[in-house]
Design goal:
Largest sheet: none
Oligomer: single chain
Shape: globular
Radius of gyration: 12 Å
Number of helices: 5
Length: 84
């Protein structure tokens, strides 16, 4: 599956991490929707429907690839925009 902003995170995650049973709990949203929610300060764990930091980190790594930026950019955007 090609990774782009319109890629469904649930499908992408299931394909790339087949042994992770939490993949089936992920919401059917795109990476763009995830990024927009991070930017708005909406809880990532509610957005993806899984409260697992490893999954969050993997999704953040994918976002950093998509935006051709450092992982810390995505992480800090989440950390400092977080409304939890």
């Amino acid at each position: 599956m090609q990774l782009n902003l319109n890629t469904n995170i649930k499908q992408w995650y299931k394909e790339n991490y087949q042994d992770d049973n939490l993949a089936y709990q992920l919401r059917d949203i795109t990476f763009l929707e995830l990024f927009k929610n991070i930017d708005r300060g909406i809880c990532v764990y509610e957005t993806i429907n899984v409260a697992d930091s490893i999954i969050r980190e993997r999704l953040f790594m994918a976002l950093s690839t998509l935006f051709n930026t450092d992982y810390n950019y995505i992480y800090n955007k989440w950390l400092y925009n977080n409304n939890n």
